[in-house]
């Protein structure tokens, strides 16, 4: 196997090698809603879910105050759908970041991003992950707004990085596309497609040539992001630089391993229900104000987002 370059080592640190004690007690993958203005062919939400009217389970103030009541410091990964479309999203972020930490997964298309960068404390934002979603971007606002918004985050001191889901249709002209973004100041990290797509299953059905190109551009992106990632005390929970080494051949299955989910990690769904991880194990509700945190790690029985599995599995 090829020895990783220093830049690759800086951008992909296995969680088993991270000894940092973070300033938060527990992390939540908070799916605020399924709604999004984009219609990416590879999205795990179906068209009805993407077009769903957003219904909030409680006021933003009530949602935010729940976390105070737990007596814990939280790292809340805000995702969707497109989280910037959530009613009161800026107020939610402003409230949460007074004591807690947030990270955001966004398509960076929202006009609210400028106000976010002007009113939210970057010290309490662990990262902003901007997904380019090229096909939909071409149909919507084009590249300009994405680049402008990534730059707004960057210039305001937010730890921002950008990725591109490697839709098989992108490969033939990917080099030109990658360079055009890079020339305008945004370096894209290739991210593996996961799940069924046009009769194939990814990442398993990437060809060898596609994998080679993926890794070549992941290496170029690592050169760009090495200093930024090396300055972090721990990797971002959702780190597209993990995809090359870990997720480019198959989607791993963690069932049967011990995991800190329920104690160090939970998932919050759009109706505010808090799950240990998958949908069968309800342990709280943000809107109803209750949370039965698990005392100890337990065996994984779910197949969810592998970034969190890598972080919270106990080896
Ligand atoms: S931007 Fe994200 S949430 Fe929206 S359709 Fe695309 S993959 Fe789905
Ligand atoms: S290993 Fe992954 S899927 Fe399993 S409980 Fe932990 S976080 Fe959830």
From TrEMBL:
Q: Which SUPFAM superfamilies match?
A: Radical SAM enzymes
UniProt-recorded Gene Ontology molecular function terms: catalytic activity; iron-sulfur cluster binding; metal ion binding
**Radical SAM core domain mapped to chain residues:** 31-164
Q: Which UniProt keywords apply?
A: Iron, Iron-sulfur, Metal-binding, S-adenosyl-L-methionine
For this protein, the record's PANTHER family field holds:
PQQA PEPTIDE CYCLASE, RADICAL SAM DOMAIN PROTEIN
Q: What is this protein called?
A: Radical SAM protein
User: What organism is recorded for this protein?
Assistant: Nonomuraea turkmeniaca
Source taxonomy: Bacteria, Bacillati, Actinomycetota, Actinomycetes, Streptosporangiales
